[in-house]
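This section describes the prediction task in plain terms. A model, or a person checking by hand, is given the sequence of a single protein chain and must write out its three-dimensional structure as a string of tokens. No templates, partner chains or ligands are provided. The sample shown here is typical of the held-out split.
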Amino acid sequence: MGEENQTFVAEFIFLGLSQDLKTQILLFILFLLIYLLTVLGNLLIIILIFMDSTLHTPMYFFLRNLSFADLCFSTSIVPQVLVHFLVKRKNISFFACMTQVIVFLLVGCTECALLAVMSYDRYVAVCKPLHYSTIMTQQVCLKLAIGSWASGTLVSLVDTTFTFHLPYRGWNIINDYFCELPALLKLASADTYSTEMAIFAMGVVILLAPVSLILASYWHIISTVIQMQSGEGRLKAFSTCGSHLIVVVLFYGSGIFTYMRPNSKTTKVQDKMISVFYTMMTPMLNPIIYSLRNKDVKGAVRKLAGRKFSQLR
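The expected answer:
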């Protein structure tokens, strides 16, 4: 278990989301369903955008990057959680834990940047439609995508380096369901102030800055939409903006709550439930809200289904 000693920790043991067997079975079924929907939804978006030339636009280029990030983000956490629902000893090696942290921070932080880039793309499309093709060129889109992945990589490396340079001796029980930084820092055998400050600074860069850009972009979009003559166009635009902002609030809100507040000595049940929103819910919701409700994507699905049907005849 987690006896106090002075040896370096070789593995961590998770307490998980629940100790009750019936609750674990119910959560296993629920999380498996969420994960399957996440994988199928994001894979469908990636395949559709790759195969349909009408979707080779800046917006769908960023959506393909977002779907890939969501796929990696969910896969870095959920399969391990599902396995742990079925076994008594919920353990992970020190290096597997480090790998999980690197991967989920890299793709999670990349997603933060991508959502901001996508809001800028929509701002240009709605507020400056005549200049859209000259502003959002293929080269600019590529640079924005590379910049998003580079920023995610940088934040991941900084946070991981600061977290794992700390000594972890003795107590190895994590009151969480995966290797999350705030829960890990509670086990460190040294002062964590500098690490917490580094994580906070990275949070300002990758959470507060992008969410500020997103809110500013949607403020301008809504201001432009209000001036539209068509009531139907206004209603459609408000519906789209509203659904996008729900995802933004869920993803950034839960991320800011977890990483931008002082680290307490204990992990509460609500802390673990809040992290479920950004680790599982948003990767499942993103394909539905950003793509599968879209008229172009629905058309591409019908086209692909029709092509497969004609091949079977």
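For orientation: Confidence is low (pLDDT under 50) at residues 1-5.
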